[in-house]
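Question:
Write out your own:
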Amino acid sequence: TMIFSAYKIKRLLGNPTIFFIVDRKELEDQLAGELKSVGLSFEVIGSINKLKEVLMHADGKRGIFITLIHKFREEELREVREELIKLSKRNKTIMTRKDVVVFIDEGHRTQYGDLAASMRSILRTASFFAFTGTPISKKDRDTYQVFGYPDEPYLHRYFITDSIRDGFTVKIAYQPRLENDVHLKKEELEAFLSSKLEEIPEEYREKVKAELKKKLNTIKVFLKNPKRIGLVAEDIAKHYIEHVEPFKAMVVAVDREACVLYKEALDKLLPCDYTEVVMTYNPSDPNEPEKIRDYHKKFRERFLGKDDKEIVEEIVNRFKYRDTPKILIVTDMLLTGFDAPILQTMYLDKPLKEHRLLQAIARTNRPYLRDGENIKSFGLIIDYVGIFKELKRALEIYDEVDIREVATDIKKIKEKLKNDIEKALSFFEGIEVKDDRENIMKAVETLFKKESWDEFQKLYRSIRYHYKLLKEDRLEFKNTFAWLTQVYYAYYAKVEGLPPEIEIKKDEFVEDALKFIHETVNLGKITKDFPIIEIDERFLGKITKQKPNERTFTDLLFAVRRYINVHRGPLTEDLVEQVESIVERWKHKKEEIAKLYKEILDIAQRIQEREEEKKKLNLSELEYSIVTILKRHIGDNPQLIEDTKILLNETEDLRFPRWQEKSDIISTISRKVMIFLVRKYKDKIDNVIRTRDEIMEVLKRWG
C-alpha cells in the first residue's frame, strides 16, 4: 500500500519528496527490495551525513528516500534544524514545503518519543501517514491521537475480519495445554498484564526498576524450570508429529537461555535437524550467560565461514523452502514481519500482550498456496502460559469488534462441529446412519434428488475442517463423521465419477489428507461398493440381464450422466437434454422406473455404439463430431474422414490456446471453413451456412 501510494503521489505532485520511515534494518532492506522490484527509483539514506545532505539540498532533495527513524537524533540534527529555520524566513525549504510526504511503517512504534519529535520539528509542513496492523491507544502512546483526527481516527482500516473474508489470511485457533502442570498462576498473569515489562527489549531489562524486575524474574524462573521445559518439550514433539507435520511450527520461549534449553530438550525427542534456534548473540558482553556462549560456539561451528546474520538468513530460507528445519525456536526475532506461509502452529511459552501478542500469533495466519489454491485451513496457537485465558484483557487496547476474530477457543470449534453435524444429518431423515452400501446409497440418491449436493458439500467441508482442528477432542463425533465422509466420497465416486483420491488432492498436503481420511474411513471399501462404471459392451451385457428396479436404474443413470459430464463434447452433446429429462421425471416420480430404465439403457447403447465406431475409424472426438455433421448434411461418403482431417489441418495454426476470445481469428477460421465447404461440397450440401455454423460451434467449444 505504501509503495502504491508513493507511486500515485509522485505522479500527482510531479516531483515531491517522499520519505519511507522504518525502525529496523531488515525492514529497510525489505522495502528497498520491493521498490526495486516495481521499478521505482529511490535512495537509501545510509548515514546521518547523507540525511543532512537530503534535508539541506536546495529546498530539500526531491525523490523517494528510505531511512531509519534512528537517524533523526536530536543531538545530530540540532544545527541542521536551526539552519533550516533561518533559511525558511527568506526561502522555501524542506521545512516549509507542502509537497513532502512521510510514510511511516509500523506506525505504532517509535512515534511517541524524542526521535519522532526531532523528525517532526524538521519536516514541519509534511503530510504524515502511518501504516500499522496493530495501532495502540494508551495514555502515553496513542497511534490515533498522533496520526488521526478526533472524529476520524482511521484514514482507512483493514482489520483481521476483512483479511479473512478476502482470503489474505486464515483463521487462528488457540488451545491451552497442560494447564494444571505448566501454566502461570493467576497472580503471576495479573502482574504481567498490569506491567510494561514485556515491552522492554531484553538487552535493556537491567535498567528496569527492581520491583518490576523481581516480578519478571519470578515468571522467568518458573518458565525455565528444567522439569517444566522437559514436560512441554515432550508435548510439543508428540503434538507436532501427530497433528502438524508436514506444516511447520515455531516455539516462542521466554528468553534466549530458554531457547537453548528447548533446543536441548527437543533434540532428545526429535531428529536434531528438525529444530533451529533463531536469536541474537552478544559475545562481547561479559554478562552473557554461559549456556548461551557455549551454544553460540557450537552454532557457529555448524555453519563454518558464515557470520550470525548469514546463518540466520540460511536457516530462515531453509525453513521456508526446504524440508528442515521444521521447528524454529525464538524469543524476540521473527515475531514481527516474518512471513512464512508454511508455518501453521505456534507453541507459545512466553507471556505476550497487546500489539506484540497480536503480531506474534499472526505469524501463523498466512494462507499456503499450492497450484493456486490455499491448502492451510487455519493457524494454531498452543498456549503453555495461560495468556489466552485472559485474551480480552491482553488485547484491551483494541476495539472489541476488531479483535473478535483474532483467535477462536477450541471449545467454540467443538460447538460449531456439533451444530454442523446436526445440520448435515437433517438431510437424511429416515435413513439409518449405518456403514452399509444400502443406506449410503440412499443418502447419495437423496442428495441428488433434492439437489442438495452443493449445500451438503459446503457443510461437509466445514465439518471436516473443524473435525481436523479439534485433533484430540473429537472422539464423540468419530462414527458420525465417518458416515458423513463415506456419503461424501460415495457421491463423488457414484455421481461425479471421480475416485476419492482425486478430491482429496484439493485438500491439504496430499500425504496428510490421505492419512487423515484413511484413519476415518476405508477408501478401498468405498471404491469397491461404488465402482466407477465404464459404459462398454461388458457392462451393458451384464446390466441387461438384471431385472429393472430402482437400484439397477440408478446405477445405469449415474453411469450415463457421469460419462456425459466427464466426456462432455461433440460426441455426447445431443444426449444432454434427453438424460436431464429422464433425471427430472425420476426425481418427481412422474413415470414408472421400467420405462425410464428402458430410455436410459437406449442412450447407454447409443454411447457404446458411437465409441465403437469412433474407435474403429481411429478418429478423435473432434474429428468424429465433424464427420457426423457432414454425414448429416451430405450423406454417407467414405471421403468425409479424409476431408475432415484436411479441414482441421488447414485451421490448426489458427487454433492456438484461447483463440475463441479473438474475433478476428474466429472470422478467419469461419471464412476458411466456408471456403472449404463450397470447394468440396457446393452442389451436395443442403444448407452451407448452417453446416458452417455447426462446425464452427464444435471448433469453438472443443477445437
Q: What stands out?
A: The chain has five domains: 2-157, 171-406, 413-529, 537-617, 621-702.
